[in-house]
Amino acid sequence: MSAESALLRGRKAAEKRMIDECDIHRPGETVTDQETGDVTNTTELVYSGMCEVKSNEGVAANPEAGEATFTVVSRVVKIPMNSADIHDGDVVTLTASRLNAFTVGKKYRVSGFTPDTFDTAARLPVKEIL
Q1: Superfamily of domain 3-128
Q2: Strands (E), the chain
Q3: If you ran DSSP here, which 8-state letter would residue 115 be given?
Q4: What pLDDT digit, counting tens, does each position of 29-78 carry?
Q5: Is 5's pLDDT higher than 70?
Q6: DSSP letters spanning 68-101
């Protein structure tokens, strides 16, 4: 079996685990309506489709701010390889989940995405937007 065929089989297997749905938007320009003065932030849809959300168990932190200590758990959102050109700062919104309704509506910002040749999925490191 060639490396390429093994990789393609791995990508198909990874997609079978992507049972959630998400939209990924790229923040755009801020636009002000000249008549009303209303300000809107434009976005561009760069991906809509299957995904998987996973805790990145090896990357938890307990930073301190003033006298408070809190826990930050890093997450990864997986989407099919080569399905979108994802950039840092893009926003992932979970739109559907077959197994965990509490994740629907959650928003995450992509930070530190670097694709590799032999990835079976695009693994997007994200932080939740509260």
Answers
A1: Bacteriophage SPP1 head-tail adaptor protein (2.40.10.270)
A2: 20-32, 39-61, 64-65, 68-69, 72-79, 91-97, 107-110, 122-128
A3: -
A4: 898 988 998 998 899 999 999 999 998 765 445 556 667 665 566 799 99
A5: yes
A6: EE--EEEEEEEE-TTS----TT-EEEEEEESS-G
